[in-house]
């Protein structure tokens, strides 16, 4: 395949949109802490990467603006609808995973 830079950009953007849709609409039941434990990133990480990419292009974006861009609504609203408090087991697994990645 000989995709041009422009085509590659569009393909990568489509993949990002599909990942975002999957994590936010198809699987909102998957908790951010579980994503962190299993994959080492979560929806908030995507928002951080989004903000960093914007800043690399000279666009100033707050943490809240980036989260809204990723979540499709204010983070607090999405969190109230979908996120549950972390269980002691999740917190322990998160800490163990964090130690493995240090």
From TrEMBL:
Highest taxon of the lineage: Bacteria
InterPro entries this protein is in?
SMc04008-like_domain, SMc04008-like_sf
Using the record's annotation, list all stretches that form the SMc04008-like domain: 30-95
Question: What SUPFAM superfamilies does the record tag this protein with?
Answer: SMc04008-like (SSF158757)
Swiss-Prot/TrEMBL keywords: Cell cycle, Cell division
Which Gene Ontology BP terms does the record give? cell division
Name of the protein in question: Cell division protein DedD
Species whose genome carries this gene:
Marilutibacter maris
């Amino acid at each position: 395949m000989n995709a041009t830079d422009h085509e590659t950009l569009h393909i990568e953007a489509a993949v990002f949109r599909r990942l975002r849709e999957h994590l936010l609409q198809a699987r909102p039941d998957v908790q951010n802490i579980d994503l962190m434990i299993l994959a080492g990133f979560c929806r908030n990480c995507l928002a951080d990467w989004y903000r960093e990419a914007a800043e690399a292009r000279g666009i100033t974006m707050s943490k809240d603006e980036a989260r809204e861009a990723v979540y499709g609504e204010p983070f607090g609203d999405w969190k109230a609808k979908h996120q549950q408090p972390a269980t002691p087991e999740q917190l322990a697994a998160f800490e163990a995973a964090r130690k493995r990645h240090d």
